[in-house]
Amino acid sequence: MPRSTPEHPLQSERRLQPIFVALASGLFGFVLALVSLQIMLEILHAQVESDLRTLAETIRNAPDGSTSSGTLSPMVSIAKSRTEVPRSTADICTERLVQWLDGQAQVSLAEARTALAGGVCRGAAVVVTPEGEGGAFTVLRALGGDDRSVRVEATTIRQSDITGIRFLLSNPAMMGLAISISLSAGLFGYFLRRSQYRAYVNIRQQAFTDELSGALRREQFLANVRQTVDRVHEMGGTVSLLAIDLDHFKSINDSFGHGAGDEVIRSCGRLLSAAVRDGDIVGRVGGEEFAILLPNLPKYIAAEVADRLRKQMASHAFCFDGRDLFVTMSTGVASLMSTDSIEALMDRADRRLYLAKAHGRNCVVWEDDDNHDY
User: Fold this and answer.
1) How many CB atoms lie within 10 A of CB 145?
2) Residue 359 vs residues 148, 255, 286: alpha-carbon distances, Å
3) What is the CATH number of domain 210-365?
4) In what order do the strands lie in the sheet with 281-284?
5) Exposed, middle or buried by CB within 10 Å (0-12, 13-18, 19+), for 256?
6) Beta strands of the chain (E only): which ranges?
7) Residue ranges of the GGDEF domain (predicted)?
8) Per-residue pLDDT, 314
9) Domain ranges for the chain
10) Is 341 helix (H, G, I), strand (E, B) or coil?
11) Which helix (H) or strand (E) holds 198?
12) Long-range CB contacts (< 8 A, 24+ apart) of 344-348?
């Protein structure tokens, strides 16, 4: 009975059309923007409430002659200073106060300085005047005095010159919000594309590996061997190759059917792949032929590895049609010499494989009279 063709990996995946991906991304971005905006407003509301309390404390009376400045929030700054001006006449008071305000960097407009000074010198306790730039304003207060002078305090509140990154670094809540948005977008993208990436990985793996045995296909195995051999030629070292053939494989197909032969190939591929190191390269190079490349192993140790694999294979019992079957394998071992090409290495391993067959099979040959290597 012919084997059914396995389902293509993409047929088992629920694929998303580009239009659905775009719609899902847009909807997620819209919801994320709304949630982020609401959280940002809550943070800013809390900051404004804190700023108002700080501002009220700042404008209160302090001991005479004190000068202070501070920062309400990363976006708002406050500057505060005091002086004493003569009260002989309103004009002289205004002139002196304007001169003092002219030297204060926080009061920049002449109209604002005149309005502030005139109000206080005429008897007002508090005068508030906008400066006309970015919503800044100055509060001028008369703190008391006597008939000859008056103590005055100027407090200016304006927006700070701050960049976005500085604002984030100085505001832990905003920084946490930015990190949360980034993580949410990253996780959404990951889950949206995870199934497609898995399908791609499966297709790529199937393109490189033999479906039945799980070992590399011949073309990919040879490509990996070429890369390893080139690296050994450049950097030095050694590498050994095992050429493996299952004994009397045709008789298994003839006696038990191709299904039994497939099971033997499948078990052999699993055995070889599980018994070697990470970095060793296992390939199925023919119907019942396998090859293993062993980097950094000299030939005599590679021969010990080959004999261990031979014994494991020979001890594995298969049961077909109620009968036990033991399958053996023959192996030829060769190691890379400094002048070798890939073809020469593989040819030497194949020659020793044929010698193993000629010597009765179920054995390992790693030396011969005509082809010496390390």
Assistant:
1) 15
2) 126, 24, 22
3) 3.30.70.270
4) 281-284, 289-295, 239-246, 329-335, 364-365
5) middle
6) 68-73, 76-86, 126-130, 137-145, 149-159, 239-246, 281-284, 289-295, 317-320, 323-326, 329-335, 364-365
7) 237-369
8) 95
9) 9-40+165-207, 76-159, 210-365
10) coil
11) helix 172-208
12) 345/229, 345/241, 346/225, 346/241, 346/243, 346/291, 348/373
- What is the mean pLDDT for each group of 10 consecutive residues in the chain (374 residues)? 38 55 74 80 75 67 45 69 81 83 70 79 76 70 78 78 70 78 77 67 70 92 92 89 96 92 95 92 95 94 96 94 93 92 93 95 91 80
Q: Measured on CA atoms in the order 189, 194, 200, 204, is the torsion positive or negative?
A: positive
Rounded distance, CA 328 to CA 355, Å?
15
Q: Which amino acid is present at 57?
A: E
Contact call for residues 143 and 80 (beta carbons, < 8 A)? no
pLDDT for position 202: 63
Q: Give the residue from 323, 332, 209 showing the smallest Cα distance to 270.
A: 209
Q: From 54, 147, 140, 50, select the one nearest 104 (Cα to Cα).
A: 140
Distance CA 306, CA 293 (A): 11
Closest by CA position to 265, among listed 329, 308, 357, 324: 329
Quote the pTM value: 0.53
pLDDT for position 55:
67
User: Among all chains, which residue has been given the structure tokens 């919801």?
Assistant: 31
The residue count for the chain: 374
Give the residue carrying structure tokens 């995946």: 13
